[in-house]
């Protein structure tokens, strides 16, 4: 009978709607038209649902055999399965009734996976932190020697710099992705590969430049401008980095860092104790130079952030856990300070840092591309004869990179669009021109000739001026990038909202 037929839907089906939306394309006009179609289909589906509900209610009120048959037909068309028989009343069932064995998974014996021991889990969490902070402490010791800090100035610089770096790294270490990978939003989808290699090379170059401060302890043997010991360390780091698997990278770094500390203590006859009484005496405070403390704190802070962000494999860490690691970084830095005069400690630290930088490059991508990125630490080794000319620009470039990366993390509100991190047609483009313009401007500002033209009577050294200019350029371009970041956030949210509406209509 015609009156018992359910109302025919006026809205398109799921496959038809998907076909119509896909045929429109991805232009701005197509997206606007797709929104109109989606809104219209949503209204039609609501009308179809209301009409079907009214028809079902009328059939229930009719109660005739034909109405019941029509209802049964619409139910079977919607859920084409055999309806289960009603379960017997368990309360009225006799006690002797034999029930079938239950088939719920909670009632079956399951094969549980092997539980890890608490000791193994503790080591898995502690080893990355220990390896990272040992290398940071050894590099901080190089900085203290480089800036000629006394014990009291070094201790204060370690405390202030490591604490400040820890607060900055709370933003970077709590993410799943490596900071080098996340820097695609700063460099661009294709620029991230060049930018990551540049970051690894610059961080290695700064540590390599700091080794010159230990020339009083380690006699340098050069051949055509190349230090033979540095070449040997680079060769060892290259070989080990290509052979070691990802699962034991931090174990190798931890073993290497502990080995450097033990070697230095053995050559020094033990760790030289720093007398607290001599540090707080009147004579020590009279020798304290606050400008040295300021520069030392800035150098320690930026070197710590640079090492964690660019030159170490990434492990996601919770904010509270990383906050508790800050005293560990200060303690290891002070411990390394007691062996600063030992031969080979600085060169071994440089080799360990090269190995860690290679591991960091391998985290950027899988396969040969990651291994190729891990070779970026060899760039400063090749440029070793020119290190006097590139040291200042390297400091300026690193400061700009750290400032832009940290500013991006603070300003960006939406989550990163993962498919756009390694493409030229994503939300971040191929090369983000404000970032590369900032890097191009910072290069000449790190050279001594340009610095003399800008500030001819400055009392600051070339490295200090490079740090100041890099920080200024980084802050200025971090502010310039804010409208770009806001536009990217808006585009990502709009696309996610459209996809969400389409998925809901398609029943996905």
Features:
508 residues; mainly alpha; Hydantoin permease; 2 domains; two-stranded antiparallel ribbon; 22 helices; 2 strands; 1% strand; elongated; disordered C terminus; membrane; transmembrane helix; transmembrane
* CATH fold assignment of the largest domain: Hydantoin permease
Mean pLDDT: 77
Largest sheet: number of strands, sense, barrel closure = 2 strands, antiparallel
The largest sheet has its strands arranged as 1-2
Anisotropy-based shape? elongated
Number of helix segments? 22
Task: Sketch the topology as an H/E string, one letter per element.
Answer: HHHHHHHHEEHHHHHHHHHHHHHH
Q: Give the helix level as a range of percent.
A: 55-70%
CATH architecture of the largest domain: Orthogonal Bundle
Oligomer: single chain
Count of individual domains: 2
What is the strand tally? 2
Calculate the terminal CA-CA distance, rounded to whole Å: 36 Å
Helix/strand/pairing category: mainly alpha
Strand content of the residues, in percent?
under 5%
Rg over CA atoms, rounded to whole Å, is: 33 Å
Q: Mind telling me the CATH class of the largest domain? A: Mainly Alpha
Instruction: List segments where confidence is low: pLDDT < 50 over at least 5 consecutive residues.
Output: 79-83, 95-116, 275-283, 502-508
| Fourth CATH level, the homologous superfamily of the largest domain | Hydantoin permease
